[in-house]
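ok so I'm stuck.
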Amino acid sequence: MRSLIVTLFLTGLFSCNSGNKAEPGTSASAPEKQAIPDFNVALNFINDYTKFCTNAGQRPTEAEWIKQNSWLTDNFKDRYRDLLDSAQKKDPELGLGSDPIFDAQDFPEKGFSILKADTLSGYVTVAGNDWKDFELVLKVEQENNKWLVDGAGVINIPDNKRAKR
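replied:
not stuck anymore, here's the structure
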């Protein structure tokens, strides 16, 4: 009798999990989001942007470079464009007066390294390779199963998250 009860208990226990498994060849409802943000996307973006800003040769405008950049969310691109348009309307000669991505007028010319990252919020702080005290906060977000930069400097970064200047 005791073995019958144990057998029934174990059969019931194992059968509870069987309904949750997808059969091979079939897909589950929706692809799961990658749990850990890819902060290298932010690092690659800011280092490429640094190279772009230090290269004085023939190049597209900054706005065009941002528009074409595949590491940025559409939201980032829209906010960037809105910020520049607004600043241009307020002061046609000066415009913004600083770089909104670096959140400064000057920046480390030898690129950045990751200083710290928050996997829960998607915020990553980078520091200048040749200017260690220069810190910058970026934010990554998953869009269409791909990690992209959704914030940098003053763009989509709340005041309380921005690097101190």
